[in-house]
Amino acid sequence: MTQERHIIVTETDLQRLQRVLDVHGSGRNAELAELLEQELARAEVMSAQEVPADVVTMNSTVVFEDEETGARREVTLCYPQDARSDEGRISVLAPIGSALIGLSVGQSIEWPFPGGRTRTLRIVAVPYQPEAAGHFHL
């Protein structure tokens, strides 16, 4: 499932994501919430001002590649209420969203997807990260 690799989450994102888990941690999202919670439990937490610009934080735009197919996709990682897949806004509770949070450019993750499939995703670029742009309250 997850690989032991270094991930980073900002203090603000961690606080907000804990609230997301409190609200969405049961019912149909329970399994996805549990995976996200496991990722957050092992993340290095740092201030928004200290996070490197190549780390996927909440509201970041990220380009990732499916290592099996070579397909690349650009998405914006968002909170569940802001998700609009047709606009490329992917919830952190979606399998892709919880896989991407905290990764840096060049890192890969093997992650479970619906239907029992496992995919390996690699971060290609982070064209926009709120913290790097000085947007600390998104």
UniProtKB/TrEMBL annotation:
GO terms for molecular function: kinase activity. It holds the Pfam family Rnk_N. Transmembrane segments: none annotated. Coiled coil: none annotated. This is Nucleoside diphosphate kinase regulator. Residues 52-127 form the Transcription elongation factor GreA/GreB C-terminal domain. It comes from Archangium minus. It comes from the Bacteria. Residues 5-45 form the Regulator of nucleoside diphosphate kinase N-terminal domain. Keywords: Kinase, Transferase. InterPro entries: GreA/GreB_C_sf (IPR036953), Rnk_N (IPR029462), Tscrpt_elong_fac_GreA/B_C (IPR001437), Tscrpt_elong_fac_GreA/B_fam (IPR023459).
